[in-house]
Amino acid sequence: xxxxxRALLRAATPRTVRARATAAAGxxxxxxLAVASAGLLAVLHTNLxxxxxxxxxxxxxxxxxxxxxxxxxxxxxxGRGTDFLQxxxxxxxxxxxxxxxxxxxxxxxxxxxxxxxxxxxxxLHDRHxxxxxxxxxxxxxxxxxxYAGTSLRAADQAQDTTExxLAVAFPLLLLTxxxxxxxxxxxxxxxxxxxxxxxxxxxxxxxxxxVPEPATADEIARLAxxxxxxxxRLEASGxxxxxxxxxxxxxxxxxxxxxxxxLEVAHAHPDEAVxxxxxxxxxxxxxxxxxxxxxxxxxxxxxAATVAADRPRQRVDLTALVADTxxxxxxxxxxxxxxxAPDVRVDGIPLWLGRLLTNLLDNADRHAVTTVHVRLxxxxxxxxxxxxxxxxxxxxxxGDRERVFERFTRLDDARSRDEGGSGLGLPIARDIARHHGGxxxxxxxxxxxxxxxxxxxxxxxxxxxxxx
Length: 468
Prior knowledge:
Order of helices and strands: HHEEEEEHHHHEHEEHEEHHEE
Distance between the termini: 72 Å
Number of strands: 12
Largest sheet: 5 strands, antiparallel
């Protein structure tokens, strides 16, 4: 296909949904009307011709019966539905005829008994087609052929009238269908245009706006509801992002101010011992700032969902990872105990799973009184690995069990940045769990709190509960 033809076809193709729907409806309606018109004309013609044939056959058979009985008279009188009659012997001699064929030669229609033909003969000179029925019968003097015919004038007139009516009705019906489709499609798409215009006007500063929801309970109404739900999520995400930036700025401002003060005092103080102490404190604050910056960077990467792309997942022996992490921690004031099911395997990123466990252990160490207990089991019914870190501290109030997973949240007994951390450990742990298809929840247990992380078991991983 040449380029000009393709360009012409593209130019002729409707560009809008409304135009395409109208064009498709017009095409289908036009084809349906054309087929219906052709079928109507065919049925009308068949019925009219069949009606004419029935009348001529009846007359032809009646005359043939008279001929067979030898009672044929020279003048035949056509009945209802027949215009002319003629009886001809085997030699072509006219034996009898209706008055309008008196003196006329024999007709030349088919001589097969019981045949029906629409011939071009016009014995009545009315310039219309004739329906000619031929019946042959045996008589005492030999075979006789009876011709009974009728003009198809009425049938032709009825067909011409019908064709004229269809010629007027066809374009009117087609135009009506196209106009109705155009208007109905426009009415149906008007809410879509309103949704589009509203979405186009929404910017990152207008996420509180919502698209109009039509009260039609149809697909467009569901589209509007889905769009508003998406805007709800975007608004909530934007709010979280702004809150995160504000919290991060607040968290960074104070230690930076303290660090600057320490360095300025150390720089101006004449006592070497005091300077050394101030520099040591500045180094500790720098370590905390470095840890906080690392946590913020990790949260940003988790929010952007780039962890999986940066670090491909692999089969992880969670039992060994938990054992190595617990044993590798420096000794602390609390006793640590473990109860680990053997050979529990999950698909994940070892570094981030280790970070999750480290955060849970850090949280437990801050709140425990004497003991931190780590338990790893499986849930065969749900094909999950279950990692629980329990401390014997004061526990977490029911109203705070979701709040502890909010970023920069410190409960009343952990307000100190030195003792209470940055408030990012548990949010990071929950985000890592979710990135691995799992979850992290907190529950109260007798004499403390338990943080429970669940992960989907890898295919072929341990499925025995409690290590059995």
